[in-house]
Specification:
952 residues; alpha+beta; ten-stranded mixed beta sheet; eight-stranded mixed beta sheet; 24 strands; 33 helices
């Protein structure tokens, strides 16, 4: 009882002290509540955006009990797992291949009696829009049926009611500029539909599609194709049956097995949620597999976030408790004079942590849930899916609140120990005494820093993630232990600086107990951000390197759909030049081939003959990563050396197999100097003069020997090409010519789609066929949806015989992630620096009063506050950048090890795993954030002081 009585009194004193110092108390509560708020919001968002198995099934089948689908092997029996993802024929034989069967399975006959169902079938189509035309997907599904609720939901308007009506997804309406009441026409059969409403798929908000009732799209389209041979019939997919089973029964496992015997696959809600034992699953017995539903597990990332939040609370709230204990030292001294011992003094300070920690934890949890609910629409749009429901798990939130409470007490632990060590005389007189800094702690910190880095690097080289995480934590803790020494060293740097920055540096060094935790708080926030940012930037650089572009940057290509379709190019070029942001640089190119004139499409392979560049043999021509010895060479190469070798002309053409704008295997186009400037970006008068003189320009120097290229033509003549067939009877003709060529520098070997530019004069001299095939344009930006739809409309007027190619690039979301990380770290850095500045002002009020008394100008207070903030922010950011590099580098070493193993099996695979620092993020944190923090601190600091009499 005595212990409880003592703590009850301590809690009462702490509560009254918190109410008496409302400003400092609010500061501590905010520092505890902010990380708790963040973790709470992450927990609720994670749980709400991660669908349960039942919610996932609803997104696939709506309110139905099951989805029945035909297998691609016809009515042959199949075996499936309960989730219908893994299936196989009962007997694998040539009679039961894995190919599409001409005889479909009888799905309606496999549906249990007493069930009702709706059908779903999709078809790719092209429809008119506000801007022109656009390809999309039309789905025949009775969206008004209650069975599809949860799979598709009506957002606005009404469901379609029969022929001539459809609903569209919100994303489709936004992209096409249409709205409710708009009319769109299905090109081909020219069927027009009125959009009666907008719908959304809760599991895929970005889906663009039209939905119409069954029988209103595909059947009329097929009838139009039978009447008019110029109408292309629809390429509709398989039909799915959304089945509602007999009332109170549903679709059982026995129903699934019965449907499997007829070649029908079934995804049953009841079976997935309550799967049968493996002994009753034939597929499990034959395949030696077990069906185990996947349970959601707390990820390591979530644990890391919670751990970082605990560290943030301790480091940010610790200085506030230290200053609070220091300002309450007279009250704590009175406790000692009344018979209280050191344990009672420590209990009072710890009780303050408990009181404020509890308030902060409750406030943070409540605010986190409230803000998540308030910003739910924005989160759903960002995730492109609706919450199944706002999932709040009380035990998890209680654990988060408990963490906030415990860390609040931990933050007050060090100040409580310091307060308990003070004598009653020191507490009553206000003298702090002189204390030496610990020399052991920095030494331990240096050892921990070096050891942690070694452990993390070792974990990276041995592919042990646990060692990487442990080593990174130990290294960061070691750097934390070294911060007091770093802060002390800062005081020696200001000997030649002006008064305000010199005072700020010396004040930071003299009050290390206040400055070091704040610097550590900034460092911890920046370290986590820099670790993720460095890793993300490095992975993004790797993806950029591995990405194979379709076109050169800043270009688009207007291409015909076949070598005989050159007529529509003129109006199409005018449309492109009128619609897109072209720069005026244009390069017309043609296709070249041997053999028949290819004036019609032929069914036989190689009717147009073949044309190829012969690659010489020997060093500089053969890629060392192919053939004998390639594996041994790959094992001996570093990632950078492997990258350099793959980028060489000898290997890049073997590694990059993509052929842009259908230039064929030869990658030879017919063109002039305009192709060089508009597409290749080769600005060399010598190359232009070579083309003008009839000499080809070779972009890949590995195909040249002594300045010449070897061109092999195999001329075949189709039976349908009567004229050429009479002139060239018998076997195919093979000719090989050596041509003098201008050889471009090695960096142009990777030009997408083009290996050599052949002038028209050379093609005529060699007797090759050529035809105008397309045009390259330089553009200032990629085409928008509206511009693309407008061009498609123009192209359609020419019979869809031309199309536009645009380079979309490697569209990752790394830049957005880095932006959010930088903003997060910037906010925490500003907050920690502002806290430290406020605490410094409260702690150094007597010093500022003395400065004012001896005649210091009023602006000195503002300048001193600003520089104090800059010192904390800048020091923490620099140390955090160093600390964050450790886990990022270690994780990249794991990626490098995996890439090297893959390269040994496939020598041409990329082993390029760079470590790239996010300089934009570093610049924002190192320069912008400290300067902004200093300016805000200077602006918010008062310039006048009320002079008070100092005691002692």
């Amino acid at each position: 009882m005595r212990l409880l009585t003592g703590w009850r009194a301590a809690l009462r004193i702490a509560r009254r002290d918190a109410l008496r110092s409302k400003g400092r108390s609010a500061l501590v509560v905010a520092m505890i509540a902010l990380p708790v708020l963040g973790v709470t919001a992450i927990d609720v968002t994670y749980r709400s955006t991660t669908p349960t198995k039942a919610e996932q099934l609803t997104s696939e089948m709506g309110a139905a009990d099951a989805v029945f689908s035909p297998s691609n092997i016809g009515p042959a029996p199949v075996e499936q797992m309960p989730d219908a993802m893994n299936w196989a024929p009962v007997e694998e034989s040539p009679a039961v291949p894995y190919a599409d069967s001409p005889v479909p399975a009888d799905v309606p006959g496999a549906i249990p009696k007493g069930s009702r169902y709706v059908t779903e079938q999709s078809v790719p189509a092209t429809v008119t829009t506000r801007h022109g035309i656009a390809p999309t997907e039309i789905v025949e599904l009775r969206t008004s049926d209650p069975v599809v609720r949860g799979k598709i939901d009506l957002v606005e308007g009404a469901y379609p009611d029969g022929k001539g009506e459809a609903v569209a997804t919100t994303a489709f309406l936004k992209s096409t500029g249409l709205g409710i009441g708009s009319r769109t026409t299905l090109r081909g059969p020219e069927q027009t539909y009125t959009i009666t409403g907008s719908v959304e798929l809760p599991a895929d908000l970005a889906k663009q599609a039209l939905y119409a009732d069954p029988g209103t799209v595909i059947a009329p389209w097929e009838a139009a194709a039978r009447r008019d041979k110029e109408v292309t019939p629809p390429q509709s997919g398989d039909v799915d049956w959304l089945v509602r089973g007999p009332a109170g029964v549903g679709i059982t496992w026995s129903d699934v097995l019965a449907a499997n015997k007829k070649g029908v696959l079934v995804l049953s809600r009841q079976v997935v949620l309550d799967p049968p034992p493996d002994s009753e699953i034939p597929r499990a017995a034959h395949a030696g597999q077990s069906f185990e539903p996947q349970e959601l597990k707390i990820s390591a990332a979530l644990v890391t976030v919670i751990a970082m939040a605990v560290l943030e609370i301790v480091l940010l709230a610790g200085p506030a408790f230290a200053v609070g204990a220091r300002r309450s030292r007279r009250q704590l001294g009175l406790v000692g004079t009344c018979g209280g011992d050191r344990s009672h003094i420590r209990a009072v300070v710890l009780a303050g942590g408990a009181v404020l920690g509890a308030v902060g934890a409750v406030t943070g949890v409540a605010a986190g849930v409230g803000l998540t609910a308030a910003f739910r629409p924005l989160i759903e749009d960002w995730a492109s899916q609706r919450f199944g429901h706002l999932e709040i798990r009380p035990w998890e939130l209680l654990a988060i609140a408990a963490i906030g409470l415990v860390t609040g007490v931990l933050a007050a632990l060090a100040p409580a120990i310091v307060a308990g060590r003070q004598s009653v005389l020191e507490s009553l007189t206000g003298r702090r005494g002189t204390r030496r800094s610990s020399r052991v702690l920095p030494m331990v910190g240096c050892v921990a820093l070096v050891g942690g880095v070694a452990v993390a690097v070792f974990g990276g080289t041995t592919d042990t993630t646990a060692l990487v995480a442990a080593g990174s934590v130990v290294a960061e803790l070691g750097l934390l232990a070294c911060i007091p020494v770093v802060v002390g060293f800062l005081g020696r740097l200001g000997t030649r600086l002006p008064l305000a920055p010199r005072m700020a540096l010396r004040d930071a060094a003299r009050n290390r107990g206040r400055t070091a935790p704040a610097v550590a708080a900034v460092m911890a926030a920046v370290a986590g951000t820099m670790a993720v940012a460095t890793y993300t930037t490095s992975v993004s650089a790797e993806h950029d390197y591995d990405y194979v572009p379709v076109l050169t940057p800043g270009t688009v290509a207007l291409v015909t759909s076949g070598p005989s379709d050159a007529d529509p190019l003129a109006p199409a070029r005018a449309a492109v030049e009128r619609t897109l942001a072209v720069t005026g640089e244009r390069g017309d190119f043609g296709r070249v081939w041997a053999g028949s004139d290819c004036s019609v499409y032929f069914e036989k392979e190689n009717d147009c003959g073949t044309l190829e560049l012969i690659k010489p043999k020997g060093e500089g021509h053969d890629c060392p990563l192919q053939g004998a010895g390639a594996k041994k060479l790959a094992e001996s190469l570093s990632a950078d050396a492997h990258k350099k070798l793959m980028s060489s002309p000898a290997c890049t053409d073997e590694y990059v197999s993509v052929t842009a704008h259908d230039t064929g295997e030869s990658k030879i186009v017919v063109g002039d100097a305009t192709v060089l400037t508009s597409y290749v970006k080769l600005d060399d008068p010598a190359a232009a003069e070579a083309l003008e003189a009839g000499m080809p320009v070779l972009l890949n120097s590995a195909y040249a020997k002594d300045g010449e290229v070897t061109l092999k033509a195999v001329r075949t003549y189709s039976e349908q090409d009567k004229e050429n067939r009479k002139a060239h009877p018998g076997k195919a003709e093979v000719t090989t010519d050596r041509l003098k060529a201008y050889v471009a520098p090695g960096r142009y070997a990777a030009t997408p789609g083009i290996r050599m530019i052949l002038p028209q004069k050379a093609a005529d001299r060699l007797g090759l066929h050529t035809k105008s095939y397309g045009t390259f344009y330089s553009v200032t930006r990629p085409p928008t949806d509206a511009e693309t739809q407008s061009l498609w409309s123009t192209f359609a007027q020419s019979g869809d015989r031309v199309y536009l190619q645009a380079e979309s690039g490697n569209n990752g979301r790394e830049d957005v992630v880095l932006l959010f990380l930088a903003l997060f770290a910037g906010i925490v850095t500003l907050g920690a620096a502002a806290i430290t500045t406020g605490l410094a002002k409260a702690d150094a009020e007597a010093d500022l009063t003395t400065l004012s008394a001896v005649g210091a100008p009023p602006r000195l207070r503002r300048a001193l506050s600003g520089f104090q903030c800059v010192v904390v922010a800048l020091t923490g950011v620099v140390l955090g950048t160093l600390a964050g590099a450790v886990p990022a580098v270690a994780l990249r070493l794991i990626d490098l090890r995996k890439a090297m193993e893959a390269m040994r099996d496939q020598p041409m695979d990329s082993a390029y795993t760079p470590i790239v620092l996010p300089w934009d993020t570093i610049g924002l944190l190192v320069v912008v954030v400290p300067v902004l923090a200093g300016l805000l601190a200077a602006a918010l600091a008062g310039s006048r002081l009320a002079l008070t009499r100092r005691a002692g």
